[in-house]
Amino acid sequence: MKQYIARRVGYSLLSLFLLSVTIFLFVRVTGDPVSLLVEPGASPEDIENIRRQLGLDQPLWEQYWHFMASLFAGDLGQSFYYRVPVLDLYFQRLPHSLLLAAVAMALSLLIGIPSGILAAVRVDGFWDSAGKIFALLGLSLPQFWVGLVLILFFSVYLGWLPSSGSGGVLHLLMPAFTLGWYFAAAHMRLTRSSMLEVLGSEYIKLARLKGLPEALVIGKHALKNALIPVITLAGINLVVMINVAVVVETVFAWPGIGRLLYEGITFRDFPVVQGVVIIGGAMIVMVNLLVDILYALIDPRIRLES
Amino acid sequence: MAVITPVTTDTVASTAPFWRLKGFPVIPVSILLLIAFVAVFADVLAPHDPQIGSLARRFKPPFWLEGGSLVYPLGTDHVGRDVLSRLIFGARVSMVVGITAVLVAGSIGTLLGIMSGYLGGWADQVVMRITDTWLALPALTFAIFLAAIVGPSELNIILILGLVYWTRYARVIRGEVLSLKQREFVRLAVVAGCSSRLIMWRHILPNVINSAIVLATLMLGVVIVTEASLSFLGVGVPPPKPAWGLMMADGKKGLMVGYWWLTVFPGICIMLMVLSANLLGDWLRVKLDPQLRQL
């Protein structure tokens, strides 16, 4: 067990290292990093100064050392546009992203789990087909298209919901649904397949033989076990949601991490872009590690197999 | 004397052309073919120049609304460019970017997946660790990051999408190669003295090509959505080129004042293309490759 955890932690550290190297190298190899790291409109002398200041005249490994040293000190550089450290900006926006992700997750589970159960109980029935279409649409439709159509209908045509910004509960509905639909599709598919697997197991047959009502068999006995993988996926997806909301947040002008990334692009604020990508990647590596360890704790087969 | 009739197999089933196979997605394939046709003959089909407009005729509505005319059947945008012509040329951008990006990602991923799976050892470790790491970065965020560094252009977008998505091929193909490696014909080839390179090229590659094709079809939809999202965010195909995502970003400003046709039409085009690619991919997955059914 200890050995297994040690290996997973080792792999994750390696992933984090590769992540930092990837980001470091792409910035320095694919162009002149100074042009990204100085503010637009700087004079040639300024550029030379900054090049020396940032140590870009030094060998690559030494530059990487400095890059990592400042990362570990929690220094992601300073935003050109807001003139505050990137990390401060990040934590300022994080609560908005968390709120959006939490509501979107709740919606996606509210849609995904019941429709997944219905689809599994009546395979190839009406709900199964309807669910398949709903899932396919959720996975295929670009989020900005869903968002804009919602705005067109609920804000422009009906005038019920505000089209952008944050504040009340009403502001949350459309962005959360747009973000949640994509994930609802994944949660529905997993609920369905996991439910089907559980329904085929011996203890469910026993419960039926005992003469328990079907609603109790499915709602209590089967559901408990079928939901385990779904909840795990939801946990991972919550972290993913924080990091992939850039399109939704841009469409609805929601002031979260994704919007920060978008502002970073439009204002050519490279430290912000780099910071958001680094933190996002690190977050996902960490949550994957956490799930691996939790699974090994719960299920001995996993740790014995490898 | 009894007449002996020769045993016949069901010739209809064995010689039926592929489009008469069970469940062949006729409509999605027709849509994709139509988009491809429009993309190829955009110069002939488009009634106007997609990049030149005139401010005198901006924000004209589609022809069935008041103030619209058949000269601009789907209306004009904020600088007076014909929406239909831009949609037609946009098909070309989507097709070119989508197909070449999938080819780039597919070639890198298949090559590295085969080498990683067949050679094993440190080559496998290196490729798989890179794959794990890159998969941890959300694809769109990774693509935005790369686009912010190298700057937007059509070629850059293709390379970026190729770089972001090859890892998905590598992982699936590697898994298949691992099981192929244990098969008799590969072992016999080793005994016969074939070099590793020859085995990978002549014996492994033809056996994973089906999976690669299925993945490519499924990836086409993903790549097109990502390209449109990048263009929508302003780091994709640079203006004034008519990309569907870019048209929607431009049209967004007009949405609140009722110029809905600027966002709805390109949106429908993206939706149709991505849905069709996904439906075709799903069908191919079941038909061509039983191993991928659980994917």
Features:
A: 306 residues, flat, B: 295 residues, mainly alpha, 11 helices
Provide a descriptive summary of the structure in words.
The complex is a heterodimer of chains A (about 300) and B (about 300). By secondary structure, chain A is mainly alpha-helical. Chain A is about 80% helix and about 0% strand. In chain A, helix 12 runs antiparallel to helix 13. The longest helix of chain A has about 35 residues. Chain A is flat, with a radius of gyration of 24 Å. The N and C termini of chain A lie close together (about 10 Å). Chain B is an all-alpha fold. Chain B is built from eleven helices and no strands. In chain B, helix 2 packs across helix 11 and helix 5 packs across helix 7. Chain B starts with 10 loop residues before the first helix and ends in a 7-residue tail after the last helix. About 0% of the residues of chain B have low confidence. At the A-B interface, helix 1, helix 6, helix 7, helix 10 and helix 11 of A face helix 5, helix 6, helix 9, helix 10 and helix 11 of B.
Query: By helix and strand content of chain A, what is the structural category?
Result: mainly alpha
Biggest interface, residues from each chain = A-B, 50 and 44 residues
Biggest sheet of chain B, in brief? none
By DSSP, the count of extended strands of chain A is 0
- Kindly report the average pLDDT value of chain B: 82
Radius of gyration of chain A: 24 Å
Q: Give the strand content of chain B.
A: under 5%
Structural class of chain B: mainly alpha
Briefly, what is this?
By secondary structure, chain A is mainly alpha-helical. Chain A is 79% helix and 0% strand. Chain A contains 14 helices and no strands.
